[in-house]
Amino acid sequence: MTQPYRQVFTISDIHLDCFGRVKPSVLLYFAQEVAGAHAAALGTDWETLQEKNLFWAIIRQHIQVTRLPVSGETVTLETWPMPTTRVAYPRATVGYDADGNVLFRTVAVWVLMNTQTRNMVLPGKSGVTVEGILRGNELALPGSLSPAKAEKTQRRTVGYAELDRNLHMNNTRYLDWTDSLLSSRFHKEHPVRAITVCYLSEAREGQEITLRWEMTDEDMLLVDACREKADLSGSQERVFAAQIQY
Fold it and tell me: Do residues 116 and 2 both lie within one domain?
């Protein structure tokens, strides 16, 4: 039976925001790194999948934060694949401090994509088997997010520094964009508590993305990001959506 995989990270200044707390995007980076290391141990790493014209991608992710770690702390991440569904490979991850206290929990819905067509490949047709387990402390799989009816907008362009090995915007960078919608004054008094992100269409280099956003009375940031369809002028398609509770 598949066992949980563990990896230790040490928090350094490059991981921190201007208030000395780990940035939310870094928590997702840690979860991504430990998932990648576990995939390598299971024989489903990036290099192996490339030989099959496949790559891993996240389509939905939810994270609950108990406390954001600070500089010098060691964080132990524990991750395990959950049972495969008809369309995806869910994975749970928990981060602990040096005393064994839970810092954060996250669940990510991973899928396999074809490197040529950029279409999703169902587990039953991929030839990739991952044995999943349930330990009883997993977060529920996140559902879809409806478009936010927001009036505030900001435009961003996907640049070289935001791309990963799959030549699209890395999932962690979306949170850097959403963080920057709010001022440092707000972030100082409102550390993040929970995040849900739905990645709806991969963002490629040079694409201009419009972020529509609003802050609710309950200190929840709602974001819906769209771009113009390349083959249909004036028509928009959603790229990602996020709900962030502070």
Answer: yes
